[in-house]
Design goal:
125 residues; mainly beta; 7-stranded mixed β-sheet; 4-stranded antiparallel β-sheet; globular
Amino acid sequence: QVQLVESGGGLVQAGGSLRLSCTASGRTYSRYAMGWFRQAPGKEREFVATIKWRGGSTYYVDSVKGRFTISRDNAKNTVYLQMNSLKPEDTALYYCAADHRGYGLGTDLYEYDYWGQGTQVTVSS
């Protein structure tokens, strides 16, 4: 089993920044990639960014390219999402997810095996 715990969410004005963290515990050795998804009220959960645990390759949804950066700290079993130039449309519950089956840079929910509880990000205009 793998446990994921997110932190770092909060309320910020448009144009501001936040850094989300997600720390993994448990069976972390078989992890291929980790990703961030988000879900706004009344909408489906959507892909935001993903990173391969070995090599560090990344992939982003177009709407956050140039504003968000995903990174990882292998020693701390932690993945980060640095979010700059935040917009009101970035408001959502942000989830961390782990891929243990080897999809790699997956963008679909089914490509991830474990999920955190989410951390709320609210961007005011």
